[in-house]
Amino acid sequence: MASTSQPLRGKRACKKIFWAVFPHACFILSLVIYAFLGALMFSHIEGNRKVNLSEEYRKFLQNLWHISRNLSDNMTENEEIFREKIHELLNGAERDWFVNPKDIWTFFGSLFFCCTVFTTVGYGNTYPVTRIGKYLCMLYALFGIPLMFLVLTDMGDILATVLSKSYNEFRKLQSKILASKFCSGFICGKGDEVKSRAQSKAVTNEPLTIMEVLKSQPGVKKKPVKYRNVEIFEMLIARENEHTKLARNKSIERWSSCPELDRGKTMSRVMENFDKIGKQLEKLDVPIVLMVLVIFVYISCAAAILPNWETRLDFQEAFYFCFITLTTIGFGDTQLEHPKFFLFFSLYIIIGMEIVFIAFKLGQERLIVLYKKVIAFCGEKKMPSKKVYPK
Asked: Where are the transmembrane segments (predicted)?
């Protein structure tokens, strides 16, 4: 029986892990599929568009021809005028006149554009030109941005749990170190031995006897026999209730061996996982300085790696680019020569945006607390003092 129960337990544990991970994987997979479908759509629409030579393009070529023809043989005299006219002429030129759409709207280029749309970065160096492409871009953003925010909220729960547990473990370790320093010169008494024995028995699930419980509670000894017996009776009832609860839990676990009940229980747990999205993020309470340090280290790691394929960027420019990207500002002043390599950092962008979002949320909560304190302080200052009238 033991050999057959172990594989069943292993299968049940795998099922629990699968259904626990299923909501998170479902959101991320939906976002990936949505990005790939958008890349196929925009690469087909914008990449295959026909380039029509407009009237503005003809005027541009005509003006350029006139400037080059009116140049005199003495270049030094007209050099400044030539530069001003050329600069003014090139400022009015459009990039689409000199670039083939198929070179911009490749699959990876379109995928990069889709990522900038639903992450609300919007660098501005790649944008739809056709009317159909503009309409589809609005429709694509309408559904893609909520999906991205849902993924960010879901990932935020995971990051909030990791950060809160790490911070709590650090605080516990710090308190233990301080407690060991203070208690190193003292000797524990008999009461500590009883407490340690009770804790060790609680850990090993061994029930304590009533006498041991009474010995660990000196307040019971001072009471009369009548009240002491009443408390002993209440303790016995409490222990009996605990045993009945444990028996009920075991019976429920046995009932779960029925596949129909087990399937219904699993589905209810999956629904609860969907309902709990965003709850852990609301409970997060860590210092804002710690989050700023995490953001600085996170961006610095990417800024050290990015110049390996973007040779025009140094560490400072890469740090600036990553910060503008993760905060979804996206000026577009820094352009990448190889955006398809940056797509491999899509998970980095999602996690980084989530870390920045958590930092902004914590900063928002701290600002609200600060405003409340300022308003309360101003209210106390302006509160009129109560006058005491003689009777």
From this structure: 21-45, 104-123, 135-153, 286-306, 318-336, 342-363
- Buried-exposed string 23-40: b where 16+ CB fall within 10 A, e elsewhere: bbeebeeebeebbeebbe
Whether the Cβ atoms of residue 284 and residue 163 lie closer than 8 Å to each other: yes
- The pLDDT score that the predictor gives to residue 13 is 67
Element (H, E) at 82: helix 79-91
pLDDT surpassing 80 at residue 98: no
Measuring CA to CA, which residue among 98, 115, 178, 73 is closest to residue 350?
A: 115
Tens of pLDDT, residues 49-71: 887 666 666 677 677 766 666 66
Q: What is the CATH number of domain 18-51+100-166+282-381?
A: 1.10.287.70
Report the alpha-carbon distance of residue 333 to residue 25 in Å, rounded. 35
In the structure encoding, which two tokens stand for residue 105, read together? 């709207």
Q: Which tokens go with 145?
A: 């941005």
| Cα–Cα dist 57/157, whole Å | 53
The encoded tokens of residue 153 equal 């909220």
Instruction: Give the chain's largest Cα–Cα span.
Output: 122
Residue with the two structure tokens 């925009």: 42
The predicted model gives 140-164 an average pLDDT of 88
Structure tokens at 73: 């043989």
Domains of the chain, by residue range, sit at 18-51+100-166+282-381
149 phi and psi angles, rounded to 5 deg: -65, -35
Q: Which of 240-254, 309-323, 327-341 has the lowest mean pLDDT?
A: 240-254
List all residues 6 or more positions away from 348 whose beta carbon is below 8 Å from its beta carbon: 302
d(CA 127, CA 124): 6
- Contact partners, residue 354, CB within 8 Å, separation at least 6: 152, 155, 156, 159
Q: CA nearest 326: which of 116, 171, 163?
A: 116
DSSP helix, strand, coil percent of the chain (3-state; round to 5): 75, 0, 25
> pLDDT tier at 228 (50, 70, 90 boundaries)?
low
Higher pLDDT, 335 or 134: 134
Q: What is the mean pLDDT of the chain?
A: 75
